[in-house]
Amino acid sequence: MRKITLSEYNAIPEDYRGIWTVERWDLPDWADLREKHIGKRTMMAYDNGTCLLVEGMGFEIVDDSSWKKTDEAGNRMPLFEILQRARARSSLRGLRHPMA
What we know:
This protein is α+β, with helices and mostly antiparallel strands. The protein has three helices and five strands, in the order βαβαβββα. Strands 2-3-4 form a three-stranded antiparallel β-sheet, with no helix packed on it. Strands 1-5 form a two-stranded parallel sheet. A hairpin with a 3-residue loop joins strand 3 and strand 4. It is elongated, with a radius of gyration of 19 Å. The C terminus is likely disordered.
């Protein structure tokens, strides 16, 4: 499930996000699915093709203070450590600028 902050969600153009309000009684099991969809935030995303994600099933809104990321054990990580880990995972690691 994707995690996204409320600020990131609100930055998505309104044409690509919204609230599920459409009843789908044409679906045979809509009565069971209705509670998972009506009133939930939605967003369009690219994941091996364009797809509709529904809050609670495809994405989760997380606290905006996400710059205070946690490691795998749930401990707060200092910003420099977050940047070091991102640099280490970067596919550009080891590449040099041709003018350097």
